[in-house]
């Protein structure tokens, strides 16, 4: 298959070192190449320059295929520099272009530091996901966190908890569910995906005793989608829908807010969780962690989430055909 493109992320973070570790773990199993400045790779890294993604196939297994992209300056692990912010943005843009033109099968992104990009290059997006949607000309996209035991989708994401009830509108929740449903079919190969929808309030509102969002909005929406033929259940009490017995009854859980979704998956698989963007015209995954400036350059960063993200990118690309 065509190789997966891996954008470098912030070069002062753990992205470069876990890319090298991922290559050592996946060589011979999964073709991918790294887009970034070779000066930012850990000292002693064996790497080979490639001119196009197709060249990655000929690179020996003990070397990292690199599509070079010059940055303004060398990077110091743990010390992010605004001078390199433009390079980080260009690496993402280059990766997206290669995936969209068919030279790469999927995109995997190493972590970025949004404040560094904003301060250093006037980055005008809340995060990676919104920037990718902009580059793709896509409408609303949805964040999914996935591991072998669980897939979760938060309907609202990076907002204060007090803002969630107003933000969780019927139209937002419906759009989130429909994008999730389509993504499970297209990207995960599930012909008839099963979706569980969490309630907003404790005990899913307990019939209106602890809030009326479930009875007023969520339950009628779920009933309407079920009447269309969607395999969907809810609203379900969030405190009882993530144990092992409950998880076998659905393929993805749509949750009301950030922590309701992320706490269970990070409890189940902290190192192996993968961030997936649904609704893009190409496959995008990312490790479910940040730049980890505090441990960058020390050689102790785990590549587990990046390895899982690369494998899932490959599997999703194959599901899309």
Describe the structure.
The chain is an alpha/beta fold. It has helices spanning 15-26, 85-100, 114-121, 128-136, 164-167, 170-188, 213-227, 244-247, 258-268, 304-320; strands at residues 4-7, 32-36, 47-49, 64-68, 106-109, 142-147, 150-154, 194-198, 231-236, 252-255, 274-278, 284-287. Helix 1 links the parallel strand 1 and strand 2. The model has no long low-confidence stretch (mean pLDDT 96).
Describe the SSE topology.
Layout: E1 4-7, H1 15-26, E2 32-36, E3 47-49, E4 64-68, H2 85-100, E5 106-109, H3 114-121, H4 128-136, E6 142-147, E7 150-154, H5 164-167, H6 170-188, E8 194-198, H7 213-227, E9 231-236, H8 244-247, E10 252-255, H9 258-268, E11 274-278, E12 284-287, H10 304-320
Parallel strand pairs: 1-2, 1-5, 2-4, 3-4, 5-12, 7-10, 8-9, 8-10
Antiparallel strand pairs: 6-7, 6-11, 11-12
Helix pairs in contact: 2-3
GO molecular function, one term: magnesium ion binding
Catalytic activity: 4-(phosphooxy)-L-threonine + NAD(+) = 3-amino-2-oxopropyl phosphate + CO2 + NADH
Main location: cytoplasm
Beta percentage is 15-25%
Strand order of the largest sheet: 3-4-2-1-5-12-11-6-7-10-8-9
Count of distinct strands: 12
CATH class (first level) name of the largest domain: Alpha Beta
Overall radius of gyration:
20 Å
Can you tag this structure with a few keywords?
321 residues, alpha/beta, Isopropylmalate Dehydrogenase, 2 domains, 12-stranded mixed beta sheet, 10 helices, 12 strands, 36% helix, elongated, magnesium ion binding, magnesium
């Amino acid at each position: 298959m065509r190789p997966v493109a891996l954008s470098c992320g912030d070069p002062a973070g753990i992205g470069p070192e876990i890319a090298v570790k991922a290559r050592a773990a996946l060589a011979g199993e999964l073709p991918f190449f790294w887009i970034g400045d070779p000066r930012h790779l850990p000292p002693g890294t064996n790497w080979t320059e490639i001119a196009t993604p197709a060249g990655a196939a000929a690179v020996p297994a003990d070397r990292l295929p690199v599509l070079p992209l010059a940055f303004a300056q060398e990077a110091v692990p743990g010390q992010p520099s605004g001078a390199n912010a433009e390079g980080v943005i260009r690496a993402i843009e280059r990766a997206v272009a290669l995936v969209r033109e068919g030279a790469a099968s999927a995109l995997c992104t190493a972590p970025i530091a949004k404040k560094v990009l904003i301060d250093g290059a006037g980055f005008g997006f809340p995060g990676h996901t919104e920037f990718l949607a902009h580059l793709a000309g896509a409408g609303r996209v949805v964040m999914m966190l996935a591991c072998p035991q669980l897939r979760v989708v938060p309907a609202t994401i990076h907002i204060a908890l007090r803002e969630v009830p107003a933000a969780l509108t019927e139209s937002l929740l419906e759009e989130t569910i429909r994008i999730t449903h389509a993504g499970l079919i297209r990207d995960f190969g599930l012909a008839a995906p099963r979706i569980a929808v969490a309630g907003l309030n404790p005990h899913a509102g307990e019939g209106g005793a602890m809030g009326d969002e479930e009875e007023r909005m969520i339950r009628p929406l779920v009933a309407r989608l079920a009447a269309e033929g969607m395999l969907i259940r809810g609203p379900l009490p969030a405190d009882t829908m993530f144990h092992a017995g409950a998880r076998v009854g659905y393929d993805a859980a749509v949750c009301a807010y950030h922590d309701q979704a992320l706490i269970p998956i990070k409890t189940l698989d902290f190192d192996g969780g993968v961030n997936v963007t649904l609704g893009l015209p190409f496959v995008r995954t990312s490790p479910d962690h940040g730049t980890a400036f505090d441990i960058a350059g020390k050689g102790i960063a785990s590549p587990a989430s990046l390895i899982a993200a690369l494998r899932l990118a490959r599997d999703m690309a194959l599901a899309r055909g």
